[in-house]
Write a structure and sequence with these properties.
Elements: H1 15-18, H2 31-34, H3 37-41, E1 55-60, E2 63-66, E3 75-85, E4 90-99, E5 106-109, H4 110-123, H5 142-162, H6 164-168, H7 170-177, H8 183-194, H9 201-205, E6 207-208, H10 219-277, H11 285-307, H12 313-352, H13 358-417
Parallel strand pairs: 1-6
Antiparallel strand pairs: 1-2, 3-4, 4-5
Helix pairs in contact: 5-12, 7-8, 10-11, 10-12, 10-13, 11-13, 12-13
Length: 422
C-alpha cells in the first residue's frame, strides 16, 4: 500500500495493477530515501540534463571507472594570512589558493571551504566528498594549529582535484576561480550552486553508463563486490584507528620521554667530566673535553628525537585523518546501492506474481544498474587514490626515518673522534 499523502501512481487499470508498485520505504530517515536514491530507482526523478552536467562511467580494465578529467589540474594552498574587514574591527584567516589551470590566486576562508563541502555532500549521494579538517583550534598554540590545518586542507584539496567528478563540478570551479575581490560574482555563483537542481535523485539522471550487450552489470556480482568492499572498509577503519593511536603515542613518547632520557644520559656524562676536571692534570684535559662533548651529543640527540615526529609521524596521521573521513562516508554510499538492489529483487518478485508489468520492472533494473555503475566507479577511484597516497606517504616516512638515524649516527661519530687525540 501507500503511506498517506502518496496518491496511487497514474496508469494501471484494475485493483490488481494498482497494488503493484514497489512499496515505498516508510523510513524517511533512511539514506536511501534522503539521498534521492529511492525516488530515482522508482522512476520519479525528472529533469532536463544539460550537456555540461553529464557524468560518464566507463568500463576500465578493473571494471567501472569515472571518466578521466580531460583537463587535470592541481591547486596549492599557501600559508594563511590574517586579514581584516570593517576597517580592522574583525580579523580572520584566509588561505591563498593557486589553481594550476588558471594560475590566478584567490583567497578563501575556512567558512568558504565549509560552504562548498556542504553543497557537494548534498549533491553527490554516491561520491565520497573528503571531510574538512577540524575547524576548532586544539593544537598546542595557534601557529601550530594553523599550519596543521593547512596541511589537512592541502590533502583535502588534492583529493578534490584528483576526483574526476568533484574536480569538474561547477561549485568547486566557482570556489577556485571567482576573484576574491568580486563580492558580487561570489554571491551569484553561490546562489547558482544553491539553486542547482541536479542534486539527490536528479543527480542520478546525469550519469551515463556503458550501453549495449554485455554492458549491464550482473546483480549477484555487484552485490558480492559491494559486500567485499564493505568488509574492507570496516577492517581499514579499525587498522587506521589503531595506527593513529600507536603513532600518536609514539610521537608523544619521543617528544617527552625519549628526549628526557637522552638528556639524562648527557647530564650524567657531563657530571663525570666535571668530576674529572678536579684532578687538574694537564694530560687528562683532552679526555675531559671529549666526555663533555659526548654529553652535548646526547643532549642534541634528545632534541632530534623531540623534533622528529613532525617530520614523519605527523604526516602519516594527517593522511589517516583524511581517510577516516572517507571511510565514514562509505556506509551511506553502500546503503544507497543496497536499497537499489532491494527494489530490483522486489520488482522481480512482483513480476513473477503477476503484480507488475515487466516493462516497469525493467526500468527499475536499468536505474539500479546506473547506481551500481556509479558506486563501483567510486570504489575503484578510492582504491586507486589510496594506493597512490599510502605509497608516497610510507616512502616519505621511511626516508625521514633514515635521515633521522643518519643525523644521530653523525653526532655519535663526531663524539667518537674527539677521543682520537686523547
Amino acid at each position: 500500500g501507500h503511506p498517506p499523502g502518496h496518491p496511487h501512481p497514474p496508469g494501471g487499470g484494475g485493483a490488481a495493477k494498482s497494488s503493484a508498485t514497489v512499496s515505498r520505504n516508510l523510513n524517511r530517515f533512511s539514506t536511501f530515501v534522503k539521498s534521492g536514491g529511492e525516488a530515482f530507482v522508482l522512476g520519479e526523478a525528472s529533469g532536463f540534463v544539460k550537456d555540461g552536467d553529464k557524468l560518464c562511467v566507463v568500463l576500465g580494465p578493473r571494471g567501472p571507472e569515472w571518466q578521466e578529467n580531460p583537463y587535470p589540474f592541481q591547486c596549492s594552498i599557501e600559508d594563511p594570512t590574517k586579514q581584516t574587514k570593517f576597517k580592522g574591527m574583525k580579523s580572520y584567516i584566509a588561505y591563498k589558493l593557486v589553481p594550476s589551470h588558471t594560475g590566478q590566486q584567490v583567497h578563501r576562508r575556512y567558512k568558504h571551504f565549509d560552504w562548498l563541502y556542504g553543497r557537494l555532500a548534498e549533491k553527490f549521494p554516491v561520491i565520497s566528498v573528503p571531510h574538512l579538517p577540524e575547524k576548532q583550534a586544539t593544537g598546542r598554540f595557534e601557529e601550530d594549529f594553523i599550519s596543521k590545518r593547512r596541511k589537512g586542507l592541502a590533502w583535502w584539496m588534492d583529493h578534490m582535484c584528483s576526483h574526476p567528478v568533484l574536480a569538474q563540478c561547477d561549485a568547486f570551479q566557482h570556489f577556485l576561480t571567482c576573484p576574491s575581490t568580486d563580492e558580487k560574482a561570489w554571491k551569484q555563483g553561490k546562489r547558482k550552486a544553491e539553486k542547482d537542481e541536479m542534486v539527490g535523485a536528479n543527480f542520478f539522471l546525469t550519469i551515463s553508463v556503458p550501453i549495449g550487450p554485455g554492458a549491464s552489470l550482473d546483480l549477484q556480482e555487484v552485490e558480492s563486490q559491494v559486500d567485499g568492499f564493505k568488509a574492507f572498509t570496516k577492517k581499514m577503519d579499525e587498522s587506521a584507528l589503531q595506527l593513529n593511536h600507536t603513532a600518536n603515542e609514539f610521537a608523544r613518547k619521543q617528544v617527552t620521554g625519549f628526549k628526557k632520557e637522552y638528556q639524562k644520559v648527557g647530564h650524567s656524562f657531563k657530571c663525570l667530566s666535571q668530576a674529572f676536571e678536579l684532578d687538574q692534570q694537564a694530560f687528562s684535559a683532552g679526555l675531559n673535553q671529549a666526555i663533555a662533548f659526548t654529553a652535548e651529543a646526547y643532549d642534541a640527540i634528545g632534541d632530534l628525537f623531540a623534533d622528529q615526529p613532525r617530520q614523519d609521524l605527523d604526516p602519516v596521521m594527517d593522511l589517516l585523518a583524511l581517510y577516516q573521513g572517507h571511510l565514514a562516508n562509505f556506509p551511506d554510499i553502500i546503503h544507497v546501492q543496497k536499497g537499489a538492489l532491494t527494489k530490483v529483487k522486489e520488482s522481480k518478485r512482483h513480476v513473477e506474481e503477476g503484480k507488475m508489468e515487466l516493462q516497469k520492472a525493467e526500468g527499475i533494473q536499468e536505474r539500479c544498474n546506473i547506481i551500481s555503475f556509479a558506486t563501483l566507479a567510486e570504489i575503484n577511484h578510492f582504491h586507486k587514490i589510496r594506493v597512490r597516497d599510502f605509497k608516497s606517504q610510507m616512502q616519505h616516512f621511511l626516508q625521514q626515518q633514515i635521515l633521522f638515524f643518519q643525523k644521530v649516527t653523525q653526532k655519535l661519530e663526531e663524539a667518537l673522534h674527539k677521543y682520537d687525540s686523547v
